[in-house]
Amino acid sequence: MNRFLNKWVCIVLACSLAITLAFAKSSKGAAKLINSRSAILVDMSDGQVLFEQNADDPIPPASITKVLTLYLAFEAVQGGRAHLTDMVHISRTAANARPVRMGLRAGDVVSLGELIRGMAIVSGNDAAIAVAEYLGGSIRSFVTLMNMKAKRLGMWNSHFVNPNGLPARGQLTTARDVAKLSMAYLRRFPEALEIHSIQAYTYRNVTRRNANKLLGVCPGVDGLKTGFVNASGYNLSATAMREGKRLVAVILGASSPRVRTSETTRLLEYGFGGVPLTPVKLVMHNNRKSVAKVTAAAKTSQRSKTKIKKSRAVANKKKASVKLANKRDNSKRLAGKSKKRGTAKTTKQTAVAKKSDRLKKEGARKQTQGKAKSKTSVHESKNWEKHYGESLSPNSTGKSFCCQSVHPFNRTLTSG
Question: Which residues have a Cβ under 8 Å from the Cβ of 186 and sit 6 or more positions away?
Answer without folding.
Answer: 44, 192, 193, 223, 224, 239, 246, 248
